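Hey, I was hoping to borrow your eyes for a little while. A protein chain has come my way and I'm curious about its shape. Take your time with it, there's no hurry, and the full record follows here:
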Amino acid sequence: MKKLGILLSGRGSNFEAIARNVQAGKIPAEIALVISNKPEALGLARAKDMGLQTLCIPSKGKEREAFDREVVAALKEYRVDLVCLAGFMRILSPYFVREFPRRILNIHPALLPAFPGENAQRQAMDYGVKFTGCTVHLVNEGVDTGPIICQAVVPVQDDDTEQTLAARILKEEHRIYSEAICLLLDDKVRIEGRRVLRK
């Protein structure tokens, strides 16, 4: 069975959605390891409660590649096939990306390439778009620039706040992240340049 490694920094709601789908047999894999760079991350505590293997590798005060080398070593020790970033608030070094080529997924709360980086929901509202959403993409050496696996569209309502919009986007994130994981695990996509095509 294929093995997932989950990286998180905060509450881990996307991790929980993935874990639920793994438990329900909807994702053909097991979660081999959950890593956080923050010891206080709620997602790490939740993973422990679920009986999953967890590890905290603090990033504070460490040079980026040195930290990444520690994380990569742990993922390889547990023979992880696919790395899933679930609210992991760090930019991966080129070293990390090279060690897991086309095997790192990230979720972003906007329709990339629009509104990359932090505070995507606020960026969308400030810009005045009528539709935003979320994107699951492969991680490359840029920030939110990798090939797109799945996207979901969420309308922006006139009375939305950043929080209400984020909550509606999050529901779609939970749905499409698992969908993207399954596509990769089942070898259902091929990549041509920037385009990810269904086989």
Observations:
- The chain has a mean pLDDT of 97.
- The domain at 106-199 is CATH 3.40.50.170 (Rossmann fold).
- DSSP finds six helices and nine strands in the chain.
- The beta strands are 2-8, 29-36, 54-56, 82-85, 104-108, 131-138, 148-155, 189-192, 195-198.
